[in-house]
Design brief:
The structure is a homotrimer.
Chain A lengths: L11 E2 H7 L12 E2 L1 E2 L9 E4 L6 H5 L5 E4 L12 E4 L3 H12 L13 E2 L10 E2 L4 E2 L3 E3 L4 E2 L4 E2 L3 E3 L4 E2 L4 E2 L2 E3 L4 E2 L4 E2 L6 E2 L6 E2 L6 E3 L4 E2 L4 E2 L7 E3 L4 E2 L4 E2 L4 E2 L4 E2 L4 E2 L4 E2 L4 E2 L4 E2 L4 E2 L4 E2 L4 E2 L8 E4 L2 E3 H8 L1
Parallel strand pairs in A: 3-4, 4-5, 5-6, 8-11, 9-12, 10-13, 11-14, 12-15, 13-16, 14-17, 15-18, 16-21, 17-22, 18-23, 21-24, 22-25, 23-26, 24-27, 25-28, 26-29, 27-30, 28-31, 29-32, 30-33, 31-34, 32-35, 34-36
Antiparallel strand pairs in A: 1-2, 7-9, 19-20, 36-37
Amino acid sequence: MSNPFYKNYSPFKISEIFKSLNLKFSEDNFDNDVLDIKDLVNANDTEITFFHSKKYSEVAKNTKASFCITTNSLKHILPKSCVPIIVENVLVATSKVTSKFYPDAVNDDFDDTAINIDETNFKNKVRCGKNVLIGSNVSIGLNCSIGHNSIIEKNVLIGNNCSVGSNTIIRNTVVNNNVKILDNCVIGKHGFGFFPNNSKNIRYPHIGIVLIEDNCEIGCGSTIDRGSMSNTVIGKNTYLDNQIHIAHNVKIGENSIIAGQVGIAGSSVIGKNVKIGGQAGVSGHLKIGNNVEIGGGSGVIRDIPDNTKVMGYPAKNIREFLKEKK
Amino acid sequence: MSNPFYKNYSPFKISEIFKSLNLKFSEDNFDNDVLDIKDLVNANDTEITFFHSKKYSEVAKNTKASFCITTNSLKHILPKSCVPIIVENVLVATSKVTSKFYPDAVNDDFDDTAINIDETNFKNKVRCGKNVLIGSNVSIGLNCSIGHNSIIEKNVLIGNNCSVGSNTIIRNTVVNNNVKILDNCVIGKHGFGFFPNNSKNIRYPHIGIVLIEDNCEIGCGSTIDRGSMSNTVIGKNTYLDNQIHIAHNVKIGENSIIAGQVGIAGSSVIGKNVKIGGQAGVSGHLKIGNNVEIGGGSGVIRDIPDNTKVMGYPAKNIREFLKEKK
Amino acid sequence: MSNPFYKNYSPFKISEIFKSLNLKFSEDNFDNDVLDIKDLVNANDTEITFFHSKKYSEVAKNTKASFCITTNSLKHILPKSCVPIIVENVLVATSKVTSKFYPDAVNDDFDDTAINIDETNFKNKVRCGKNVLIGSNVSIGLNCSIGHNSIIEKNVLIGNNCSVGSNTIIRNTVVNNNVKILDNCVIGKHGFGFFPNNSKNIRYPHIGIVLIEDNCEIGCGSTIDRGSMSNTVIGKNTYLDNQIHIAHNVKIGENSIIAGQVGIAGSSVIGKNVKIGGQAGVSGHLKIGNNVEIGGGSGVIRDIPDNTKVMGYPAKNIREFLKEKK
């Protein structure tokens, strides 16, 4: 996923990358410039990639990258054109290198580019409340409104006919047309992503965005985290009630309805026309089919096929659940 | 329910109402003025009503309304004095017509009447923080305080000895005396109410309010939605902990105690002296009796009689629950 | 626990204390000055204590306090040097007397000492957003940032290299070094503590603080209440995801990971290296051991020993849970 929002601080000498991983760089090697970090398929010969699991062997064999972060036991799979960089934990090292290219995607301190909307060109274009702040690289369409004390931080594109409530914070987000985001939301912050490490965890960068498609509504007090390596997506005409938490990389299909206090853990994919009752939770990395209904309070810990109604914890077919519980 | 907060934009010619429903208005009819929309019982001969289910046949027979939104199969039940307006979906059409009379009850964009309290007469009366905003039609009693960045949007009546925290937003709400509303709350926004419609849902108006009776406390980060056709009510001396969600039309009795992260879905009625443990959920349209105790984390999906302790999901008698789970 | 944050309004004449409890003070007694209220062990002869349960009989026998709030049935256990003050409900009376000494620990109205950071000495020291407010008795270390509209209310000590997001409110809190507190949090407000009382509950004072140790992260929209008689503690390098609620007196060990929407009820103690999945809940007054893993959505209602994985509601050993649920 390529994201226009984060500045790529390349080029870096490969010797610098070795240094940032606390590895010794042999003077025998050429000290090439490296321009970006990408996955095994997309990296080209000016770029570095990473290879951490045998299941990617086929693509690893054919990578065009000049350098690859990997382990001693996987390095022989790489082509000769690709110099292996041997580390103990590939994902931690990849995170460190990604942070080097995209440091702005790690640090989510407040946006110090934000200024009062009255000092910007949006002043006459957007119907806005008191004390609205606008960061750099923001675009807002026609007929939009932004409520009091809301902060449109850097890297936000908002379409036409959108309404943002009060006390809401948005960054690194694309909002299409006719979207309503209510009060006290936080949209587009980095997800809950880090490598646990005794006494000091290591955060990994989030170079994805949040994409909210046409006609959506996001309820009060909701949080939607941006993606780490892919985007977080709320599909067209999907409505979220209050106090909902959508974790990084989640994708929700169109025409879905999600009631209050639901939480969806990282990287799960929810289909179209899905209905989720209040306080239900969906674990991470699951696939929920189209036209699925999940009862309020359920805990979903397995994939759910299309056209299924489930309930309970762990969520199962609703008839089965109700029969057992009689 | 009659609500003084929303402006009624009547009169409308009945031909305009036909037009808003995409129906053809026959020139043979008189083009009467219509002054309001009410239910079958309360509408008079200057008003329009709606009739969507056989179970209301008895009151439909006697309605005094001059017009009634209904279906082909129900129209014969109406008296001759009432002209049926035939639609496919009565509730959707009713929602559209209600929106015509009360457009301010559909649109919950930020309140652009709100100005800094320092520019109002409340300046000397209310102990207030920095950057407090006050909308139109607001009344605040004696000995009240309002925290920093809070927004008392339009249509709010606050009694005596009340305290509102910081970063809190209130609209369309009546707060009685000695009430504390803590930080980061959103009180009185429209509920999660709409008719699902492929590619573009249809929101329905919320012409109810939130009523918070004497001596209540509302914890940080809570959301209380206003009613759609009735009010949302928090009874006297009831305490809500942090991060609670109360949906539209919910009524909670007095002296109840509701712990953190509880959610109560739309239109449920909770009795007096009820205790609800943390993270419990109550489904919509239920009746929970007086002196009920609901264990933390429970999911209530059926009515609960008075004086009962329940737990589990679905919540059942607590002894039964604990025996089974041993 | 001694807390430097709350002003002690002593001395009080013992006759005043009797009066505040609606008790008759016999003119035969000396009308001593009382300087503080402490527990049975720590009180000295200028102080008042309280004794409400037989299980404290051993320490009661040896208390050095000159006065003790207690019941008729317990008073004979006290030493002769200690004058019993007989009440019906010891905890309610203790709460009233504590409130007399520490009235600022009961009332959590907005902090009216807070002023814009631009008017303080922090202006040049702290990287800060727009409209940041700072209360009295605040200290902020080197290399810190505070986001837009955030309010550092009175009694907050922040170490070095800390980042506070936007729209966040902190009071009565010690934050060590390298801590990130994200947007829309409320940290350090009084807990959900009161004595239920028909028609008007009685709040008790919270004289504890929140302590957030080095390297922690607190996610968006989280609430952490300060302690009532002890502190609420988030251990070193512990990460909290979004929308988490931590109640008063909770202690969480170091290197723990707590996913979104988790709630931990009052006075529970969580060990080190604990992982808690999204939406799980922990009841009050429990002890969760070290290296425990609690599955997402679980409801923990009993103590959990070290090195255990649990899941379900009530949470049980995870293998057992999954076998049963197959």
